[in-house]
What does this fold into?
Amino acid sequence: MAGKSRAEMMEENRAKLIWAARKAFAEKGYANASMDELTAEVGLTRGALYHNFGDKRGLLAAVVHQIDNEMASRAQAIGARLQDDWEGLLAEGAAYIEMALDPEVQRILLLDGPAVLGDPSQWPSQSSCLEVTERTVERLIAKGFLKPVDAEAAARLLNGVALNAALWIAASEDPKAVLPKAIEAFRALATGLLAKPA
It folds into this structure.
């Protein structure tokens, strides 16, 4: 049996480092996570970390990207089950907001991520989420379901509301109490786009 190629080994090392970092960042937070402990746990060196991610911040960016993509996929799957673009859009936004209750999502994506990586709306993973929302908004406008507003502007505002609601939940002292308020406000704001009042 042939050994693994260099590319396969590098990809395997990347995956190990992301897994270990995700665990460490969730348990200890970004600031308290030790890169020496993290690399030792998966049998790699700091050199492997620097080669793959540049530094600790680069590793956090990779972890945030992975979690954000998982959240978007889960939210989109929830929305797709409804087979109705409008209800799907509302369900997708509510699902994204609700994921802010997950301790891993709270700590890594919503607290440490913005503190270390800056504005979440500028993250690459948010751009792909925006594209999906924009396509849905375009379909709803074409069907006359939504007001004929600029689709990109509407998508950016809808995504911004969901993201900011999630950030609010993560930073609050009682996330479970904030969740229903955030979802209710998200739905109320989104219905302002309807061509005919609900």
